[in-house]
Amino acid sequence: MIERVSRTLVRRVLAAALLTGALFCGRFALAGAASLQEMLDGALAPSAAPALLGPITSAGRVGWECKPERAAASARAHDAELPADPSTP
Amino acid sequence: MRVLLLVALLAQLTATAGTAQTYSPSTPLPRTTSVPALRSFAIAREVEERFKLGIDAESRGDWKAAVPEFDRIVALNPGEPKGSTAQYDLAIAYANLQRNDDAARALHAAIALDSGFLAAMANLIAVDLARGDLREARKIADRYVALDPDSARALYSRGIVALQSGDATTAREDFGKLLHANPSYAVAHYDLALAEERLGRFEAAERELLSALALAPAYARARFALGVVLLREGEHAAARNAFARATLDASGDPALKNIAAAMRDSIKAP
Prior knowledge:
Chain A is mainly α and 89 residues long.
């Protein structure tokens, strides 16, 4: 009688341990996949924000012909003071 | 002898007339005894002088010295465009002192004084991004693009804000438009590729990254992104090669170098 109870108990404990183990493994696997995804997403970061445009003198804004204002309105990326291409010497 | 002397004298006079130049004073001399008029002259003079001192301080990177000069001009409340210009210059000093909230406040004041001040909008977006206020940055970027739809900086700035806030559709439109006018700008190809990747358009992303790399072959971040896109497309061997190349090219960026090496090593060699 005692033997039958202990066998049942061992089976139940073993099943519970296996189930818990499976759940933990699945959880870790999911966490691993999620962290890889996060790692890749984090590495695919957008380029930097453009640097601040420079100061304007009191005379420099006459007729809005000052350099920062021209840079802000330019259609050419080169004149807009945007981040430089990485290979540009 | 007399003729020679006369010729020499005339030559001297001509040379003097050629080099001499009269200078008008930067501020006209007051020709009044009226107290309000004299006060107004004094204020105008102070504004001019403080602008010079403030700009000199900013050009030598002495941001702390620049702040009180522009602060004083703002307090003197000069007319436009000097009022908004002083706020704009004050914001530059604040931003360089990492006082981004103060910088944003000054730039808002500049734009309130002059609603078409594009340089102030451009700098406000950069300041908002630095202080992590994406909502405010997007509001200003929308206004900037509406005022000048062809401005490269407006399109780039809104594209970056859109990418950072998860609006890949707007980023795709803005970088696409920027590239239409500037097809050889590699950075914009990279950012357009990120927008395409986020929209699940992997082929388009790959195309843009290859364009970026054709323009800038040592562009490590673009090479790494190409590896990610190839991985998503199931091209493991090509992805491994891209990560390996990114590891070599990212020598100046240790974080990118490490992650590229980890990605390269996580893919089994064929």
